[in-house]
Design goal:
Elements (H helix, E strand, L loop, with lengths): L1 E10 L4 E6 L13 E4 L10 E3 L1 E7 L2 E6 L5 H6 L4 E4 L14 H4 L3 E4 L4 E10 L4 E6 L4 E5 L5 E5 L4 E4 L6
Parallel strand pairs: 8-13
Antiparallel strand pairs: 1-2, 1-7, 2-6, 3-4, 3-7, 5-6, 8-9, 9-10, 10-11, 12-13
Length: 168
């Protein structure tokens, strides 16, 4: 399951939900036929429950959505805090130079001198830019996922090339 975001609160009294997306284009989720909800992001497949999205929109710099079967505030409160996931086949294709976070997890990170810095453990969303959490046996590094640091992403080759010194 690919986690797209998390429900952060009910929105209104008619079952709408306020959502925190973990990506740049959450309005594209409207093309996905089923959203899967679970209380934990790494839940096994049998703990995800399918919902059909009826509507999704931006409201006051926030994302809100309506799911079929969630008709009032009480129902929306019952799924508050759930993670929203999707089956990989239902994701819209990415544009050139864009990546799903899930595609980057576990990739090896190598600097321009050919030194292995570790593997991508996760990504963090910050106000300024996304950050790669790169873990090795010795340490954990936080590398900004920006053009002057990340020089090349090779998903099929399972490698990210960065301009980053091994001692930083």
């Amino acid at each position: 399951m690919i986690v797209l975001g998390r429900i952060i609160a009910p929105f209104g009294v008619r079952g709408w939900l306020r959502i925190h997306p973990f990506g740049d284009d959450p309005l594209s989720w409207g093309t996905i036929s089923h959203w899967w909800l679970s209380l934990t992001a790494d839940a096994p497949p049998d703990q995800w429950r399918a919902y059909v999205p009826e509507a999704i929109k931006v409201h006051a710099n926030s994302l809100v959505a309506k799911l079929a079967g969630i008709e009032d505030r009480d129902m929306s409160e019952s799924i508050d805090g759930c993670f929203i996931g999707v089956l990989r086949d239902e994701l819209p294709p990415v544009k050139l130079g864009e990546y799903y976070w899930d595609d980057l997890t576990d990739l090896s990170v190598v600097n321009l001198q050919g030194q292995l810095l570790g593997n991508v453990k996760s990504l963090l969303e910050t106000g300024a830019h996304n950050v790669l959490v790169v873990a090795s046996e010795k340490n954990e590094r936080l590398l900004p996922f920006v053009e002057h640091v990340v020089k090349r992403v090779d998903v099929p080759g399972k490698m990210i090339h960065v301009d980053w010194d091994v001692d930083w």
